[in-house]
Amino acid sequence: MKVTSGSVNPVEGKYKIERRKVSSPRIGVFGVGYFKYWAQFEGLLDDLLAKQKILIEKIGKNNIEVIDFGLVDDAQSAYDLVPRLQAANLDLIFCDMLTYATSSTFGVIIKNIHVPIVLVALQPDKAMDYSRASTYMQLYNDDVCSLPEFAGVAVRMGKKIPEVIIGTLHDDPESDLMINEYCRIANVLHGLKTARIGHIGHPIESMLDMHTDSTMLTAHFGVHIVQCEVNEIVSNYSSNVSDAEVEEEENRILSFFDTPEPVSDPISEKLKKEDLKVAAGVSVALKKFVTDRNLDGLAYYYNGEDHSETQLVMSNLIVGNSLLTSSGFPMCGESDLKCCMAMFIMDRFGLGGSFAEFHPVDFKENFVLVGHDGPHNISIAQGKPVLRSLKKYHGKPGFGAGVEFKIKEGPITMLSISSNFEGKFKFVIAEGESVEGPIPPTGNTNTRGFFKPDVRTFLTRWIKEGPTHHFALGIGHHASSIEKIANYLNIESVVVR
Predict the structure, then answer these.
(1) Are residues 119 and 98 in the same domain?
(2) Per-residue buried b or exposed e for 101-116, using 16+ beta carbons within 10 Å of the residue's own CB
(3) Which pairs count as long-range contacts for 13-20, CB under 8 Å and 24+ apart, including other chains?
(4) pLDDT score at 5
(5) I need a labelling partner for 375 at 20 to 30 A (CA). Which of 173, 296, 316, 451 fits?
């Protein structure tokens, strides 16, 4: 299994949100050194290889498939390594800076490899024992020595300077966290390369910011967009769902959600039995469709003829979508493929990722409500999420069960993926806080989002970066990691502060 930290089961008991099983990312590791040292200092090579083994063990603790490519210590061994790295179908590479190495061990690799490379300089001793210091001890701890040289040769080869991890090999939680971060990034990159994202219908006509060229998503992210038909779900609902399956799904749904009495919104009601039955039947039909199509995500919107079965089914995907999104299958309403990609990235990095936009501002307490109607990631809910029957879905056809909750209180990260006049993608990123307090009881998600320096200034700065009005909302502060992902995808990014 791949890294899934950040996704939390909302309840314990008979029913649990199980993460979907997916293939693991592959990380390659090669060490570098200088061949002239081996004859000069007996035992040094073995000690350096022992260091590399420890790094490989650290990487392996992150549920990653690790491939050890051994040591490169001269130009020829670097040339020999290139085709092996190319053939390994890697998602990320760690270059272990075991001791000083000339950049001839690295230049041809950075020139010919298009997989992200991270330079890892973890010296074994926190400090040399100067009273008994020796050249051997220095070389054993010379992990940072070649970093400037390697950075310089990357520039000369026309490549970006690689990311760097600097620290100690033992008892260094900070470097362990950085290794974990890059393993999670590898998880995202691997997922994007292999993902099949379904697309049904079209964006709501007036939402021009959301229209997306599917070919460009493949070109820049690697995903394949699977164009699907609405009847694939509707036919499952009408002829391929049994009463027993619906009853079991009803019980499953009720185990995850509360169903309180309505409060102040006149279009909301206590969850009705008939709305639960429809939601459960659609959820079963949806899961069968996803399995049949071998999908990893879905963006959808479809009106359907008034009072038709098609309209009933396509307007009641919300509950089933929310359960699937929480299992690692991002689903985005209003057919926003770019936001679905943002949710996918957050999910694979372990942040959850829920469908969101800006709602009214509270100028008294200096926050803005962030949320949306439709499907959401209940694994990152604060408390138990709520289901309400809605007499109408505002701005959309149909009626039925609506999902209501807020994101876990604490740090949050937002990611909007927009595109400009030339069709180029851009990541617009921000960090904030989900703060305590009531939300509107409208059968939609809403989180009290606090952003520095104040809500008016933040929103002004966010808008000036040209985002889409939808974004993915995840838990934790991870703007720098999202920036790294954008950088590896060669996509422009900005963090709004």
Answers:
(1) yes
(2) bbbbbbbbbbeebebb
(3) 13/255, 14/255, 15/251, 15/252, 15/255, 15/256, 17/256, 17/323, 17/326, 17/327, 17/378, 17/379, 18/327, 19/327, 19/328, 20/327, 20/328, 20/329
(4) 39
(5) 451
Span 236-267, pLDDT tens digits: 999 999 999 999 999 999 999 999 999 999 99
Q: Do 177 and 216 belong to one domain?
A: no
Q: Does the pLDDT value for residue 9 go beyond 90?
A: no
Give the pair of three-digit tokens for residue 421.
């006049």
For residue 152, the enclosing domain spans 26-192
Quick check: is 9 in a domain?
no
Q: What pLDDT score was predicted for residue 1?
A: 29
Confidence of residue 3 (pLDDT cuts 50, 70, 90): very low
Neighbours of 8 (CB within 10 A): 15
Q: Looking at the structure, tell me whether residues 239 and 161 fall in a common domain.
A: no
- The structure's pTM equals 0.95
Q: Tokens for 157?
A: 């080869």
Distance from C-alpha of 441 to C-alpha of 270, rounded to nearest angstrom? 11
Domain boundary among 170, 192, 214: 192
Helices within 35-134 (DSSP H only): 36-40, 44-60, 75-87, 107-112
What are 371's strand-pairing partners? 357, 446
CATH number of the domain enclosing 94 = 3.40.50.10940
Mapping DSSP to helix (H, G, I), strand (E, B) and coil, where does residue 469 land?
Answer: coil
> Residue 86 is encoded by which pair of tokens?
């190319």
Q: For the chain, what is the radius of gyration of the CA atoms? A: 25
When mean pLDDT is compared across 13-17, 50-54, 234-238, 491-495, the lowest value belongs to 13-17
Q: Which of 147, 163, 192 is the last residue of a domain?
A: 192
Pair (319, 409) in one structural domain: yes
Estimate the crossing angle of helix 337-349 against helix 479-488, to 10 degrees: 110
**Are 189 and 485 spatial neighbours (Cβ–Cβ below 8 Å)?**
yes
Same domain, 179 and 304: no
Instruction: Output the 3-class SS for 113-151.
Output: CCCCEEEEEEECCCCCCHHHCCHHHHHHCCCCCCHHHHH
Q: Residue 14 above 80 pLDDT?
A: no
Residue 425 above 70 pLDDT? yes
| Shared domain check, 181 and 38 | yes
CATH number of domain containing 291: 3.20.14
pLDDT exceeds cutoff 70 at 13 = no
Phi-psi region of 263 (alpha: psi -120 to 50; beta: other; left: phi over 0): alpha
Residues 6+ apart with CB under 8 A from 147: 97, 119, 121, 164, 166
> Do residues 139 and 212 both lie within one domain?
no
Domain count for the chain, please give it: 2
CA separation for the pair 390, 269 (Å, rounded): 6
Residues 392, 267 contacting (CB under 8 angstroms): yes
* Amino acid letter for position 237: Y
3-state helix, strand, coil in the chain (%, to 5): 40, 25, 35
